[in-house]
Every structure is written in structure tokens, then in C-alpha cells.
Amino acid sequence: MKFQLMRLPGLCVALSLLTALLPDSIAAATPAQTMNPIGRVARLFNRSLVDVEARVQWLQSSLGYLAIFEEKPLKEELGWRCGSLDETPGKPWVALDLGRDVPLGEIFLIPAQRQTGDMNDLFPRRFTVEAACQADFSDARVIHSSGTNLEVSPGGYPLRLTGDGQPARHIRLTLDEGHHRGLRNAAALSEIFVFNFERHPVSFGATVTSSQSVDVPGIWSPKYLVDGRTPLGLWEGGASTWTTSRGDCLEVTAEDPRAEWVLDFGKSATIDRLVLFPYSLPELSGPGVVPPRMRVEVADNADFSDAREVATTGKDDLPTDLTTPLVLPTQPAAGRYLRIVSDKAWQLGTRYLQALGEIEAWEGNENRSNGLTISVRNSGLDHPISELTDGVGSHQILPIYSWLTQLVERRNVESKLGDLNARRITMAAESELNTTWGGAIALGLTFLIPVAIVERRRLVSRTQLDKLRKRIASDLHDDIGSNLGSISIIARSAKRDLEKRLGPDDLTNDLGEVETIARESSLAMRDIVWLLERRQDTIGDLVQRMRDCAARLLRDVEYSLVCRSSKTTAKLTLDAKRHLFLFYKEALHNIVKHSKATTVIVRLYDVRDRLVMEVVDNGVGLPRGQNDQMAAVKKIHDRARVLEGTLQVESEPGKGTTLRLSVKRANLMATKKMSHE
């Protein structure tokens, strides 16, 4: 998954300053991934990502100490290949006779190199490996079996199988399932390395038999499974083991191309095998050279008067370029001295060269040539050289077991690296994205905090104002309302006393008027207190307040109040509550003062998205002034304008008056602030 990260210039500047404070462990993690400040800050807050990147870095550095995996395809002697064209009975197999019983340690299978037209390296899909001491495998024991599972090709790397440590002379690999590449049950291997329990090779030069082999002279043959040649190159260490030592290169003449390399073991030794590493020429990028034809002799005398031949490369010339060591199994023969003789030089243009990169002479599990000084002889010249036995070529030469083990370990490390890198990329992208958004939010909060402080102060002031408003309302209700109530009671009592003593007169009428005014003032005070309260009442609450007001103002008139709105539970804004109630109260005052009505009808109902308040009376109509204007409804018009509503006034002398206010419900229920009267 890919993430498109948001880059904020201001944020990047701020994060750049922050990265200067990062711990060294975080700042050093995966430099390529932490060049941008967002990436570095992301790692500051994500320890898991830092740990993963540290693990990746450690694994990458460990690869430098492991043998290099670099396929160098062979041109000949590729290995063993099997398959059949018909329904041949039985499964293909290949068997190795090690020549003697050895405690079985480990087995390494080397995949064959991919051929033109092949989709893969033809590594066996399912197979079984058995070990036995008897040639007929009557005492066979299973070392490895794929069972019903398909083997995954190691991709050119060695596949390691663990032995059981028990003695075995014969090793057999049976193909349970192969590929279909024109042949049935097709499979191929480049090499089979068998090691004893002490981790020394025992399969070089072993006798190999097989069934259903596809033999091509010089290309495919069972005997190529034990010649030590693989497409994996030389047995050398990783990049960290690079050296300048390459071995010995002697220039000879065409007339006298003979060269000898003589080893003195100091005492008699029986050499089992000779391993010759090619000499790497600077003029050739990659392959190395060895003498085209050689023979190996041992002797007890330094003049080789009793020389005995123990190995030879044959009459045919060796390949002109080698990418693998040359393993020469020797015949059993004891001797103190060993001589490698070459009668034919390798030609490079007009130059004739005799060259070797390294010589290993193995007796059992010991390299008897290690650290020896070798005498190189040509045309009577004899000069010593130690670079042929110092254990280094272009890189440090490894024991064959260590080399194969390091290749297996490299495959495991690279597999872990692949998984960790995928995880690291995902974690880094997510962390950087989260950091980007987190930084953007932090940057936004930097600007919003002052606004929040101002808003909080405004809300505190508003809260204090509300408290003051409630206190004033409470004082009006308690003090002034109480005083008005006391005036009303005193006036009523004085009026009653005067009527008993003196009878009705003007004074008692005045006291009655005082009582009425005091009572009405006290009721009006309640309406003012209700309007001062900062709470959002519903339409139902407003209707109840309208009923109370009508009961006070229309006590001498027959009236009815009908609410048919379906939104009685909807909340009204503070301004809407105030202006609707004052509109209604003003309409009732006009009826009481001017209409002389005997019947009043008040209706509230819905018309689509509007709330309609209708006040109807049967009075004499509204008084008209100059130009036929109804001055009594001016304040009512102002209320309707503030509510952004529509007011219809129907009034004719002697036929009563109808006031119809229509307001959009959104203007009453919305949170937008309406202007005060």
C-alpha cells in the first residue's frame, strides 16, 4: 500500500527544529528513510518502527560476513538429470556409494542451473532420501521425505538435510514427483554434498548409479553429482573477507611450458583428495584459469625417483575458464612429497602461463598443505611461494561445509529481510502519515488556542451575565412583586373598610383602581421574569403562557385558544419566544383597549413549513388615523418584521379584526441569532 503524505512547509520547518533533539539511536536508524524531518519525528514516537529498522540494519550488515550468493552458470558438466518418455515402471533414483561406512552428518542438495526454455531449475517437487550400509538398501532408513507436501525450490541456494549420525555407506535419493518438461518426472540436480558427523565431505569421487537418467556427454551425467562443480562459484567468504592475494602465475615459453609445484609434508601422508582453485586474472572479469592438463605424483624422496601417480586430469584439456574449484580424488598412496606436474601451458594471446590460485591437499579431515611453502619449478628455476597455501584467493577461502552453511544462512537472512522490509515500509508510511496529521493538528491548535481562550472568556462573561439576569429576575419577582402584592392587599382592605363605614364614594373607587393596577402589574412582572429566563422553551410551553395571559387580560370576554400544531415539542430560540409572546400580548391589549369585543379566538396551526398564529375578535375594528392608517398595529408590524414573518391584518368597522402572523419554522427553531427589539 502506498501513502501520499501531506507536506506542510510550516510543519516541516517546525519538525526540522525538533529533529535536532532526537536521540542518536533514532537519528542513526536507516538514514535513507529519515532524511525528511517528518520521518525522523515519526520514529521518535514509534519505538516499534525504530526496533524494526535496527533489526533490518543489523541483518543487512550481517550479510557482509556471509558467503556471497552469485550464480555463475557452468558451460559443461552441469549435473544429473532424469526423466522418461514412456510409462517406465518405477520411480527415478540416484545412489551414491561413499566407499566406506561414515557417521552421517548433513546432506546438501544443490539445484541445477536453469536451462534455456525451462521455467525453473527442475528441483524435485517431492523426493525421499535414504541411507543404508548395504548396497541393496535392505537396511535403509529414511533421512528425509517430502510426503504429500511439495518442496519449494530453494532458488539456486543449497538445501540442507540433517542426517542421523548413524553409519552409512550408501545414500539414495528417490524422486516421488518431478516436472513435466517434455519428459515425465523430469528433475535435475547440480551436486550432492555428503558430510560426516565431523562436518568433513565424504562424497567427492563417490561411485554414482541411477535410473531413468538423461545422459548427454559432457553436459548431464550422474558422475557430475560428486565432482564439486556447482553454479555457485568458488568456496569463498563475503565481501568483508576481500584480499589482494591471488596465488601464483608463472610465465613460461612455448618451447618449455613445463611447470611443477612441489609440497613437502615433513612426514609421510596419504592424500585423499586435492582441491585446486583457479587463478583469477585481472584481464578476465570473473573466471579463473588452471593448467589445461595435470598429473599428481607422490614420493618418499625429494628427487621423485620413486614417484607414483595418484591422480590425473586426463588427456582432454580442462575448460579454459573456471568458476569453481577443481576437485581431484587421489588413489591411496603414502608419501612425504607431492608434486603437481603440468606439461601444457594456458595461452593468453602470445603469452604462455602456468597459474594456480590455491592448493589444498586433504588427508582425512586435515588440510596438510595449509601454511606450507611450495616450491615452483620451471627450466631449472626453483622459487618458494606461500600464497598458494595461505587460504585466500580474491576472498578468504572457506571450508566447503562452512561455505554451504553460510549460503543457507544467507538465504534465511534475505528471507527475513524481505519480510521485515515490507513491514518497515508499511509502518514507516503509516507513522509518517500519522505524524503529518498530528503535526498539522498541533499546528492548527497553536492558532486555535488563542481563539479558544477568547471564546472561553466570552462564555464566562455570558455565564456571569446570565447569573446577573437571573438575579435581577429573582429580585423583581421577590421584592417588587411582593411589594405590588402588598399594595393590592392593603388597597383591598382599605376599600372594604371605607365601604362599611361611609359607603361607596370616589375614594373607594380610587382604591379599587389601585388594587387592579397593582394586581395587573404583579402579573405583568411574572411575564417579564419569564422572558428574562435564558432557556429555550417549546411551543407547548409558549401556548401555556399564552393561556395564562389570556386568563388575565380577557377575564370579561369569552375566548378560546386552540393549538393544532404538530410541533409542540420543538424548541424555540430565546428571541423567537420573546417576540412571539410580545406579539400575542400586544394583540390582546389592542382587543381590550379598542375592540369592545365579546368573543376572541386564538389559533396556532401549521401550513407546510410555517407556523401561523391567528387572533380573531368580533369587535368594532381597529381605529384608523390619517390616510386610513391603523396606528394600533405598528408595534405588531415591528414584531413580525423582526421574526422575518408575514403579517396579514383584516379589520373593518363593526366587523371585528383578524391578525394572522405566518413565520417560517426554521426562523423560530434555528440557532441563528435574531436581533433584539
Give the secondary structure arrangement, pairings included:
Layout (H helix, E strand, L loop, with lengths): L8 H11 L4 H4 L9 H8 L2 H17 L16 E5 L8 E19 L14 E7 L8 E5 L13 E4 L4 E11 L6 E13 L10 E4 L37 E5 L6 E12 L2 E5 L1 E2 L7 E2 L5 E5 L8 E5 L13 E4 L4 E9 L3 E3 L2 E6 L1 E6 L2 E2 L6 E5 L2 E5 L14 H102 L4 H27 L6 H15 L4 E6 L10 H22 L3 E9 L2 E8 L16 H9 L3 E6 L5 E8 H5 L8
Parallel strand pairs: 24-25
Antiparallel strand pairs: 1-7, 2-5, 2-6, 2-7, 2-8, 3-4, 3-6, 9-19, 10-17, 10-22, 11-16, 11-20, 12-13, 14-15, 14-17, 18-19, 20-21, 22-23, 25-26, 26-28, 27-28
Helix pairs in contact: 1-3, 3-5, 4-5, 5-6, 7-8, 8-9
Protein name: Histidine kinase
Keywords: Kinase, Signal, Transferase, Two-component regulatory system
GO molecular function, one term: kinase activity
Q: From the helix content, strand content and strand pairing, which structural class follows?
A: alpha+beta
Shape: rod-shaped
CATH architecture of the largest domain: Sandwich
CATH topology of the largest domain: Jelly Rolls
Keywords: Kinase, Signal, Transferase, Two-component regulatory system
Signal peptide: 1-28
Protein name: Histidine kinase
Domain Histidine kinase/HSP90-like ATPase: 578-665
